[in-house]
Amino acid sequence: MPCGCTLSPVTSAPAPAFRPSAAQLGLIGVTFLMWGGFFLVIPLITVHFVDGLGWAAASVGLVLGVRQLTQQGLTVFGGAWADRIGPKPLILAGCLIRTLGFGWMGFAETLPVLLAASVLAGIGGGLFDAPKSAAITAVTRDEHRGRMFSLISMAGNLGMVTGPLLGAWLAGVGFRTAALWAGSVYLLAFAVLALTLPRMTPPARAAGASSLDGLRIALQDRVFRRFTLVLCGYFLLSTQLNVAVTLKAVALAGPAATGPLYGLSAGLAVLLQYPLLRLVERHIPTRPALVTAVLVVAAALGLMGFAVTFPQLLACVVLYSLGTMLVYPTQQTLTARLAPEGRVGSYFGFSAISLGVGGALGNFLGGLLVDTGARLNLPTLPWLTLMAVGLVTAAGLRWALRGMGEEK
Q: Which of 106, 139, 171, 221 places its Cα 20 to 30 Å from the Cα of 390?
């Protein structure tokens, strides 16, 4: 029977300890499955179509870009629809659509077909992304949300480690098999959430209210609008593990350096994210914790400019990872706190703008800065520039969140 849960924060007396419920455990497990399924097949697309079939790398880049653009664009609206009909049906529909999209990729033999399959996969992601965050918020008490989002992030990082390992094994069997496996993972996620996630009934809407009213409210929220805008700077920095940091690692230690690089970053998140967040929660309020985490990321990137050996770079990656693993749970917690009752999905959807814009700028500017530094014989230029972006972002976050209550 439906439990009648709403998307508003729980207001009863705080529980003495955080003991994940069946719904919370289901969401944690599904996050592992989603990240694992995604990273099982996405890295193989380039290998299969470029190295295996001889397609132009630009064609595959177009495919991956279209998927990300589709997902991030739809995520903005997916959150608003979750406020209208509840997050569960959207998450379930998104899982089924992504199952079809990834499965279809395995049968793609032409660029138009692969593009269509990637769009379908992007639509699935856009439907479940913000609604999943809204569901996490709805089933978790306010004082436990930071920990819950930290566990969600740990599960995602574990999936990011496991997926490529399984994908590498399946690559020997064939890309079609790998794509079908990736699709079946989302089918399993569908089954888990169908059994564990309660139906969440949105608050009653006024007659004639639009499903996009939540986005309008988020846009008009001065504090949240500034928060989302400033976070673009952080997401510009967070993409550098895939761009500038990877390029430096390869320059110092060759192509094989990418394995230790990503393994270290994801492994640290799996092992340390939750205990680190618990430690920080006991000593630092959420807002200063977010600002401090961004400063740590900025300092790590600046220090990378002076790393002349691969172990030195990895030491900087440790610092970088400590910062990034604190940003996600604190940013998600603050988004949930800023959202008014019944508008949590819309706020999470609107916040996807910062990831889309910042991530796109980061992918472009990271490579441009590295090329410019090499051309001018100024190897520290990209790293000092990125550090400056981080310092400005940290200052911007202090400014953007000054309208929140001191306890937040």
A: 221
Among 240, 230, 226, CA closest to 298: 240
Pick the CATH number of 212-403 from 3.40.50.720, 2.40.30.60, 1.20.1250.20, 3.30.1330.30: 1.20.1250.20
User: pLDDT per residue over 182-240, tens digit each?
Assistant: 999 999 999 999 999 998 876 655 444 555 777 888 888 999 999 999 999 999 999 88
Q: What gap in Å lies between CA 273 and CA 285, rounded to an integer?
A: 17
Reported as a single tens digit per residue, the pLDDT across 262-310 is 778 888 888 888 889 889 988 899 899 999 999 999 999 999 999 999 9
pTM of the complete model: 0.75
Say which CATH superfamily domain 21-203 falls into: MFS general substrate transporter like domains (1.20.1250.20)
DSSP string for 215-239: HHHHHH-HHHHHHHHHHHHHHHHHG
Measured distance CA(252)–CA(255) in Å, rounded? 9
